[in-house]
Amino acid sequence: MFHCNLRAVKVKKILIVRYSSMGDIVLTSPVYRCLKLKYPEIEIHVLVKSNFAFIHGKNPYINKVWETSGSGLELLEKLQNESFDFVADLQNNSKSNALVSALRVASQKLEKHNVKKWFQVVFNIQSIQIPHIVQRYIQVFDSLELEIDDEGLDFFLPNENDVDQVLPFGYATENALVLVVGGAHEGKKWSPERFQDLLRLLKDQRVVLIGGKEDEYPFELENNQLNLIGKCSVFQSAQIVANSEVVITGDTGMMHIAAALKKNIISLWGCTTPSLGMHVFRGNGMVGVNLHTVTIQSKRSLRPCSKLGNRCKYGMNNKCIDVIQAADVYEAVLHLQKQKE
């Protein structure tokens, strides 16, 4: 990578590389806002995997979105013709490193703290400090003296609201409880049986379940409970989250979308831990009378089991997140609802 003092040059155009995944991309949102507000003259380009490009579609702080199905090397000539002054590698893997090297311009990459994460996973030492990934994204731009503001994350919904297309006639999602079922890795997924236990406890409350098609499950529901798992787009799910009272979720991309939409969140943690630096991110001063995060963690002593939640030290048939009981989550719901009174 080529490094230079960006304060000594006139930066006009920046390329930011972050291929995936949904939550990680949402977590980059403060970078674009802070850059554009401090340096409105800078043109901000973003390179992302095609299946996640929609996340940037309505972002007013981004000038151009480049889509790739691979590393972006197939776009190399076009990217070189843009004459970027600086490339920020927020992915920092072999593919992004190869692309940035080929561009041959001033660059900086994300500090992943993989050694610290390894110590946490191998020796179960959660006290090892790893800065939140949002802070580490911002640090990539130290040469521009970029600082994080107090506004938290951004997620821009489309102007058109088509969530009514998936709702039964007359069903209102305003101030409902939203249960996010599923996750990118098995160790992040609270089991359907635990969700069913929670639904029974919430029998008198309006509840909407959302998730991907792979998370579909024949839940037993009360009349005021609605199962939309596998029926919503990401934007439709996000609109339901935006209307909600409380969002109950594992360590998922929708958790970060809920934070961006300034919702009350109950987050459940099993094989991963907040200490790995990917917990709910709020802007300074945003947590208070009307905005709360309740973090419920498995009480097992060998956590974290893995960086990504793809392995459990106790076995996936006995995974850590299922140690969390529905009664604990129900108590957290009542606590948050009492805060509103």
Describe the structure.
With 341 residues, the protein is an alpha/beta fold. It contains 10 helices and 11 strands. The chain has 2 domains: 139 residues, Glycogen Phosphorylase B (Rossmann fold, 3-Layer(aba) Sandwich), CATH 3.40.50; 178 residues, 3-Layer(aba) Sandwich (Rossmann fold). It has a 6-stranded parallel β-sheet with strand order 8-7-6-9-10-11, with helices on both faces. A 5-stranded parallel β-sheet has the order 3-2-1-4-5, with helices on both faces. Helix 7 packs across helix 10. The chain is globular, with a radius of gyration of 21 Å. It starts with 12 loop residues before the first strand and ends with a helix. The model has no long low-confidence stretch (mean pLDDT 94).
According to CATH, what is the topology of the largest domain?
A: Rossmann fold
CATH architecture type of the largest domain: 3-Layer(aba) Sandwich
Mean pLDDT: 94
The DSSP helix count reads 10
The CATH superfamily title of the largest domain: Glycogen Phosphorylase B
| H/E topology pattern | EHHEEHEHEHHEHEEHEHEEH
Strand order of the largest sheet: 8-7-6-9-10-11
Our Rg estimate from Cα atoms comes to 21 Å
The total number of structural domains is: 2
Structural class: alpha/beta
Report strand %.
5-15%
Outline type: globular
For the record, the CATH class of the largest domain is Alpha Beta
Describe the protein's topology.
Elements: E1 13-17, H1 22-26, H2 29-38, E2 43-49, E3 64-68, H3 76-81, E4 86-89, H4 94-103, E5 107-109, H5 114-123, H6 133-139, E6 177-180, H7 192-201, E7 207-210, E8 225-227, H8 234-243, E9 246-249, H9 253-260, E10 264-269, E11 293-297, H10 326-340
Parallel strand pairs: 1-2, 1-4, 2-3, 4-5, 6-7, 6-9, 7-8, 9-10, 10-11
